[in-house]
Specification:
By secondary structure, the chain is α+β, with helices and mostly antiparallel strands. 65% of the residues lie in helices and 6% in strands. Strand 4 and strand 5 (188-191) form a beta hairpin. 11% of the residues are buried.
């Protein structure tokens, strides 16, 4: 509670706290009015700046002659003719190649990334083809599954766009940095801020996280077409420090691919990715060929070893049969059998067997008695 005012003051007595509150409210009101005035001044300055810029543009706008307008019209006519010619060539190529060859080609090729590098100064048929893919602005991109329905369209749009086949790392980085989900009902897109959004939108196709999405796109899952329809087109922008891209005229930016432009940078990146993929595929093929060669050599060695074992077993069987059937070997002494049973390579065992044969007594060649013994035997016979 504040102090009461002195009694000698005229008028109604008002407490000091109420007076202080009135003062603070007045100050706040004055500050608000000043802030509004400052905001109004800022807005007016910004408006004047925009008006001055617009007037400057109108004053420095170049005059386009009728000759240049005719040149642009002829160019669009020529581009439309080339667009239809490419379509006819692709149709004849598909017919001559056959369905089996084209299906093999579609299975080997990966998912393509199509980036629009031309603006509105294109023929109507080309613009309609871009609109069919959802690429309504320059530098918008989309992942497209290469198949019978899209192969012709991609080849027709090749002169007006950048076509490449990104690696799994590029797809993962692209989804994490610029990936958006497309709502078909409301026709709006929403950034992929977490795995819960992916699970809600693509859970029915087995996609629960960003890793599942990149794997399904790169390895071309069975539901690849439905998955890609739920992905919104990627919006690419040239970097601010790219001087040559920002300071080119509208016609040059939309019609001519500058070697220092953002479009050429994207083409170079996709070309590097394609080279890396081809090198990886080549290395994989070489590794698989080396592995197959090693397996074949191991199988050949195993077969040779088995053949040698079979030959040895067959030789042993033949020897055993010959030993049983031949009469000379059957009547031979056990020592001679030992000699026959001894291996050829062991010379020591053969010598020992020969020594045994020499030392064994033969029944036919018994030792003859001496003359003294013969006479004693005769005397014994006579006495008897």
């Amino acid at each position: 509670m504040g102090k009461n005012p002195p009694k000698w003051l005229p008028g109604d007595r008002v407490k000091e706290t109420i007076l202080l509150q009135r003062k603070s409210v007045d100050e706040l009101r004055a500050d608000r009015i000043l802030r509004k005035d400052k905001l109004g001044e800022k807005r007016q300055k910004h408006k004047n700046k925009i008006d001055a810029k617009r007037k400057r543009k109108l004053s420095t706008k170049k005059f386009i002659s009728a000759q240049t307008i005719l040149k642009y019209a002829q160019r669009q006519k020529h581009q439309a003719r080339n667009f239809h010619k490419i379509g006819e060539k692709i149709d004849s190529k598909v017919k001559t190649a056959g369905e089996e060859k084209m299906s093999e080609k579609f299975t080997t090729t990966g998912v393509a990334l199509l980036v629009r590098c031309k603006g509105d100064l294109v023929p109507k048929s080309v613009r309609q083809a871009f609109d069919r893919l959802g690429l309504t602005k320059i530098y918008t991109a989309r992942l497209v599954h290469v198949g019978p329905a899209t192969y012709k369209l991609l080849q027709q749009l090749k002169p007006f766009s950048i076509l490449g086949y990104p690696s799994e790392e590029h797809i993962d980085k692209l989804i994490r940095t610029r990936g958006c989900l497309w709502n078909l009902e409301s026709k709006t897109k929403r950034f992929i801020s977490g795995n819960r959004l992916l699970e809600e939108a693509l859970g029915q196709y087995g996609v629960l996280c960003v890793e599942d999405l990149t794997a399904a796109i790169y390895h071309k899952d069975e539901k690849i077409d439905e998955i890609l329809t739920h992905l919104a087109p990627f919006d690419f922008h040239p970097p601010r420090m790219l001087f040559m891209e920002r300071h080119r005229t509208a016609h040059q930016k939309l019609e001519i691919i500058n070697p220092e432009s953002f479009a050429s940078y994207l083409a170079e990146q996709l070309g590097d990715a394609a080279k890396e993929g081809a090198a990886a595929a080549r290395q994989k093929a070489v590794d698989s060929a080396n592995q197959e060669r090693k397996v074949d050599a191991a199988k050949r060695r195993a077969a040779d070893a088995k053949a040698k074992l079979d030959e040895a077993e067959a030789a042993e069987k033949a020897k055993a049969e010959a030993a049983v059937t031949s009469p000379a070997k059957a009547t031979a002494s056990p020592a001679s059998k030992k000699v026959a049973a001894t291996p050829k390579n062991s010379k020591k065992a053969a010598k020992e067997a020969e020594d045994e044969v020499e030392s064994t007594p033969v029944a036919a060649a018994a030792p003859t008695p001496s003359k003294g013994k013969k006479s004693s035997a005769k005397k014994r016979v006579r006495e008897e």
